[in-house]
Every structure is written in structure tokens, then in C-alpha cells.
Design goal:
Order of helices and strands: EEEEEHHH
Number of strands: 5
Length: 95
């Protein structure tokens, strides 16, 4: 389902196919596909309103990294961001 409902003025609601929701029922992780290019990405909105985006470049960089670098980078992600990254990896594995 494509989500585009209103939210508080501080934090706009993510648009795209909802993957996860907050306790208030607002999307916190969405999958977006560019209609023109077909490029897909997963966008995470953190509790503080910041965003993390995971797409082809992220996955290619992660796969091309050393185990230590990948662990270090993933270790710095918040739980919600890890959820988004795993979702993006899964989508790309089955594509």
C-alpha cells in the first residue's frame, strides 16, 4: 500500500510501500521505486526525524567491503536502520 497520510508539521510522512509502522500507525520504513528509472530503495525515518536510505549503491558498497569494515559500519546503525538494511538486502536477493 502506498502511504501518503498527514503527520505533524515537524516530520513529514514517508511516501512509498510501507514496510514498518510506528506505534502511532505512521510508516517508519518504506520501499520507494522511481517510476522513471525503476530504481528502488528503502528509506528509514528514525525517531528523531532523520532519514537513512539504502539502495543499490549501499548494497554494492557493503558487499565489496571487508568483513571488518562491514561489521563496523553495521554496528553504528540503529535497530530501525538495520531493519531497513535487511529489508533492502532481502528485496535485492529475490529480484
Amino acid at each position: 500500500a502506498v502511504v501518503s497520510m498527514a503527520s505533524s508539521a515537524d516530520t513529514p510522512v514517508l511516501k512509498g510501500e510501507a514496510v514498518a509502522y510506528s506505534e502511532r500507525g505512521l510508516p517508519t520504513i518504506v520501499r520507494q521505486v522511481d517510476d522513471g528509472t525503476g530504481q528502488a530503495r528503502t528509506v528509514v525515518q528514525n525517531e528523531d526525524g532523520t532519514h537513512k536510505v539504502f539502495g543499490a549503491n549501499t548494497i554494492n558498497s557493503l558487499v565489496g567491503s571487508s568483513d571488518d569494515d562491514a561489521r563496523h559500519w553495521m554496528g553504528a546503525l540503529k535497530d530501525r536502520e538495520l531493519h531497513g538494511l535487511v529489508h533492502e538486502l532481502g528485496k535485492r536477493l529475490v529480484a
